[in-house]
Amino acid sequence: MLLRYVTNVYKGFFAISYQYRNYSKKPRLPQKAIWHKERYDTNLEGLIKEYDQTISNYMDKRTNGKETRGWSQEISSFYNHIYYLEVRRMLEQQGFGFK
Length: 99
Known about the structure:
Blueprint: H1 31-34, H2 45-62, H3 71-78, H4 87-93
């Protein structure tokens, strides 16, 4: 492997984009929801519901009422489809187990 990942490491990705329309800046998921020190915080339901409403309001305004989906709805619909057929094999090679 080029980057010599150790076992139990999953390679993520990020995207860089250019704003070609004058949209307002999309609100980001609060740092508290993604930054975990030492242990994962599972008490995030209220924070996620609040962010869902923030994104719903943002989408409503951005699309002139045509779209009002929240963050959870968008993420769950994305992961409802298989986009990369080789992901499971790659994860197993990295030491992740599946039942």
